[in-house]
């Protein structure tokens, strides 16, 4: 999955030369009045000169974005230092930082203006920003020549206000510059017939989405989702479907992206790709990734789900088929994650999955290390099972599969010290216990679970903090499962365990187990 993500890889010497440019001595920058190092007369219009050897054509936009982001980081770092030093009253350092920030801002503005036709609205921001930077430099210099505490205190407040204005103005200017660059990329996607040119533009957009939700919002507002779905609706660009959809999934981490997807009937396009047998697995997997993103429970807005319901049967059918035929763990993870999210917001999806024999397919997948090879995939599987288990008919389906794999999930342990893997294992244990508790409403399921030694494992998870990675949520789920089994089969739990884990109030048993020392086990 990571191979498509664009990383700015450059020769080490070239990287050193680029970094050196951003660390130019302040005095030199002042003498040059922050003029750019130079724009070659024969270079293509709009190409920024970054060190030496910047290639033309498809690499121009990439270098523009790279330079812009690097310069923005340098300026943001300097402004952050100013806030810190201002609070400590280090006036010499405050002034020197203000001079550096002023030089970097002027360099960035002049360089960008030389490389692009700056929009009028952005020019206003540039002029205002440069004036404020100069004012900041002048006012901090005045503070070097006095020891008057009252004067310095009043100046500190004034400088803080100007510095805040500079930071806000700079952020707005960078957003406008990035939006300008993004429009260039989108225009390439919309107007070019070259697979290479479009693919390069998509790669640059995808790279930008990795810099956080703020950039994703800008990308969405500039119409990237619309342009990418146009690509996904043209057969001649089938080789770019997976790449375009991966970018859409990244953009849809923000509400603006999902709103754009809704406006262009993106869900219908996703359904077409998922149900098209001629679509390559990579394209269907990335379509599943978009579905997983837009159905995430973390999104506050659910308006887009209304149109999703119209295509839900086709999408769910295609996703469970993808789980069954997945060639690798990554494809299975994307498809199962989409299904897991879908089962949260509509019970009809759970009924469809039962009709499609989903429990058998998912439990069989858990036996296949090629498809289910990490706790993250098992987390998706057990999430689906937990949501299916609210349906009465789910119990008979699990009995047909004997449920042994579900109990194995209670024993899930991380294979490394990775915190994220440990957290995934906790979720697997918790949801497996929740599923078991729900299914044990059926006496036959409860009896099968007891025969498969579920009770000793649940007790171990309750009594041993390390077995559950000190997770309180796992403890609560296991106590609930034990009490459900005890209610159906009272003789399945020994007297001492019953006295501590079943008889007291749930909160009292929780407090007892959460305070246990490991030697108690």
From TrEMBL:
Domain Protein inscuteable homologue C-terminal: 71-521
Domain Protein inscuteable homologue LGN-binding, chain residue ranges per copy: 9-53
Single GO molecular function: cytoskeletal anchor activity
GO BP terms, alphabetized: apical protein localization; asymmetric cell division; establishment of mitotic spindle orientation; regulation of asymmetric cell division
Pfam families referenced in this protein's UniProt entry, alphabetically: Insc_C, INSC_LBD
GO cellular component assignments: apical cortex
CDD domains: INSC_LBD
SUPFAM superfamilies membership: ARM repeat
InterPro entries: ARM-like, ARM-type_fold, Armadillo, Insc_C, INSC_LBD, INSC_LBD_sf, Inscuteable
The name this protein goes by in its record: INSC spindle orientation adaptor protein
Species this chain originates from: Maylandia zebra (zebra mbuna)
């Amino acid at each position: 999955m990571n191979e498509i993500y664009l990383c700015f890889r450059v020769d080490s010497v070239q990287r050193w030369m680029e970094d050196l440019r951003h660390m130019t001595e302040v005095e030199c920058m002042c003498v040059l009045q922050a003029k750019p190092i130079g724009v070659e007369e024969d270079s293509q219009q709009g190409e920024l000169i970054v060190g030496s050897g910047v290639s033309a054509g498809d690499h121009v936009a990439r270098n523009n974005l790279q330079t812009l982001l690097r310069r923005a980081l340098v300026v943001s770092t300097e402004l952050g230092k100013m806030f810190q030093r201002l609070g400590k009253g280090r006036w010499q350092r405050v002034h020197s930082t203000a001079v550096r920030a002023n030089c970097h801002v002027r360099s960035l503005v002049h360089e960008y203006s030389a490389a692009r036709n700056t929009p009028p609205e952005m020019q206003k921001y540039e002029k205002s920003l440069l004036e404020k930077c100069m004012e900041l430099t002048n006012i901090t210099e005045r503070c070097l020549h006095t020891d008057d505490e009252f004067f310095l205190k009043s100046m500190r407040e004034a400088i803080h206000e100007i510095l805040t204005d500079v930071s806000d103005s700079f952020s707005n200017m960078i957003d406008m510059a990035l939006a300008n660059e993004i429009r260039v990329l989108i225009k390439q996607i919309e107007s070019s017939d070259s697979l290479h040119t479009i693919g390069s533009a998509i790669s640059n957009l995808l790279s930008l989405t990795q810099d956080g939700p703020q950039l994703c919002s800008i990308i969405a507002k500039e119409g990237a989702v619309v342009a990418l779905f146009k690509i996904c609706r043209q057969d001649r660009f089938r080789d770019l479907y997976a790449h375009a959809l991966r970018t859409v999934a990244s953009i849809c981490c923000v509400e603006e992206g999902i709103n754009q997807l809704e406006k262009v009937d993106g869900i219908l396009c996703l359904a077409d790709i998922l149900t098209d047998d001629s679509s390559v697995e990579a394209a269907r997997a990335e379509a599943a990734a978009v579905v997983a993103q837009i159905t995430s429970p973390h999104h506050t807005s659910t308006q887009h789900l209304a149109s999703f319901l119209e295509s839900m049967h086709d999408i769910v059918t295609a996703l469970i088929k993808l789980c069954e035929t997945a060639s690798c763990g990554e494809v299975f993870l994307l498809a199962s994650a989409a299904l897991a999210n879908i089962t949260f917001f509509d019970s009809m999806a759970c009924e469809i999955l039962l009709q499609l024999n989903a429990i058998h397919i998912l439990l069989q997948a858990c036996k296949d290390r090629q498809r289910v090879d990490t706790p993250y995939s098992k987390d998706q599987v057990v999430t689906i099972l937990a949501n299916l288990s609210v349906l009465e008919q789910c119990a008979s389906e699990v009995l047909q599969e004997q449920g042994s794999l579900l109990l194995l999930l209670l024993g899930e342990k991380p294979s490394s010290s990775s915190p994220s893997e440990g957290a995934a294992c906790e979720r697997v244990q918790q949801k497996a216990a929740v599923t078991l508790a729900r299914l044990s409403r059926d006496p036959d399921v409860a009896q099968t679970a007891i025969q498969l030694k579920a009770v000793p494992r649940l007790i171990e998870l309750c009594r041993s903090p390390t077995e559950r990675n000190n997770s309180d949520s796992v403890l609560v789920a296991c106590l609930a499962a034990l009490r459900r089994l005890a209610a159906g089969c009272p003789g399945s739990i020994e007297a001492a365990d019953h006295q501590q884990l079943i008889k007291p109030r749930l909160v009292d048993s929780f407090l007892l187990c959460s305070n246990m020392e490991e030697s108690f086990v």
